[in-house]
Amino acid sequence: MTSLTVTIVFAAALLLKLGLELWLIGRQVRHVARHREALPPAFAGVVSLEAHRKAADYTLARQRLQVIALTWGALVLLGWTLLGGLDLLNVWLRDALLPRWGEMGYQLALLTAVSVIGAALDLPLDLWRTFRLEQRFGFNRMTWGLWLRDAAMGALLGALIGLPLAALMLWLMAAAGGLWWLWAFGVLAGFTLLMQLIYPTWIAPLFNKFQPLADAALAERVQALMQRCGFRAQGLYVMDGSRRSAHANAYFTGFGSSKRVVFFDTLLARLSPGEVEAVLAHELGHFHHRHVPKRLATVMGIWLFSLALLGWLMNQPAFYAGLGVQPNLFAPNHALALLLVVMAGPVFGFFVGPITAALSRRHEFEADAYACRQAAGADLRAALLKLYEDNASTLTPDPLYVRMYYSHPPASERLAAMPAA
């Protein structure tokens, strides 16, 4: 493997990825715009033409912003890698910090600097998405004060949790020998499981308020459903999702004694008790079919492969040089290797994305089928139609775009798979 080979393969993959993404967005935009004025017959009398037009306009606006985001992201990635941005930052920090902070301090500073600069480069588009696009279509409830609080809290948690984890990973890369990646995988797997325990009770409440479900009749109905499904939860909670967005959702989180069912307040305000029960039955369908452990196992398999690949690449000088970084052959820079894999990985991961999306859509069909057995299928249909309408999800997506990206089936396919009553 030569550095030129690495450069050519990376550049070709990046250009192919960007070209395919922009082509797919073009298909989606043309397909949605073409059907903007024609409500699909299956939704006539259920979804208004006005709501259908709003969904089309919302989809088109998001796709146009996505064109900018994807192009900007590709340029930033080129700037970090082949144009030498990461190499310049690394050399500057190494010369400035290595003598005073030591190897670990300098490498953690490099990871932190890349994260902060990356967040700053993405900030304008993130702000536009929240305060212009989402605001325009009536979804944004975020204030500037709340946004600043969330940003500060996220940065603090990132430092408190991320820096010690990064330090441990870097230490393993330097001290655990050729199979360090197995130890690192064990650390990441353990950390993920630990977060499943502590996130619902310690981290999520830092951002949202969680109140016990106050509607006694609905709580009794939900408890009966969970008992039928063999699901035990630590409690039923209502989250103040309306504080940030008008979008609605429901989910269960955690495992063991920390499992809890969470309803967005926007969901409860929109759905009838029977529809809430049906939506929860869908979520419990994921539990019944063990979709969460299956997805977690898939993610961990990807991590294991990625860490093993990193273990090999970090000892290949051509890997660094081919991506625009000049390595120090006498003192391998584990932070640089980690950053390059994190940056380049999504370029190649894009081409397997349709596989994971297809698996996710299959899980949604399975959860819908389970919900129709445990609750009224008509209620699930009605609830999904309300959610599609309230979230301005287009009813006429491009079929190929769906196959490439959608983690949930489009409304037409999803409702067609359910019993009529």
Q: Helices and strands, in N-to-C order?
A: HHHHHEHEEEHHHHHHHHH
Calculate Rg over CA atoms.
24 Å
Could you report the average pLDDT, rounded to the nearest whole number? Answer: 91
Count of DSSP E strands? 4
The proportion of residues in beta strands is under 5%
What class would the helix/strand composition place it in?
mainly alpha
Percent in helix: over 70%
Largest sheet: 4 strands, mixed
Number of helices: 15
Shape: globular
Strand order of the largest sheet: 1-2-4-3
Ends distance: 60 Å
Low-confidence stretches: none
Task: Describe the overall structure.
- The protein has helices at 3-34, 49-80, 85-136, 144-175, 180-203, 216-229, 265-270, 273-288, 291-313, 317-322, 334-349, 353-374, 377-390, 399-405, 411-416, and strands spanning 210-212, 236-239, 250-253, 260-264.
- The model has no long low-confidence stretch (mean pLDDT 91).
- The protein is mostly helical.
- The relative contact order is 0.13.
- It is globular and about 65 Å long.
- It has a domain at 1-140 and 306-421.
- Helix 6 (216-229) runs parallel beside helix 8.
- It is built from 15 helices and 4 strands.
- A 4-stranded mixed beta sheet has the order 1-2-4-3.
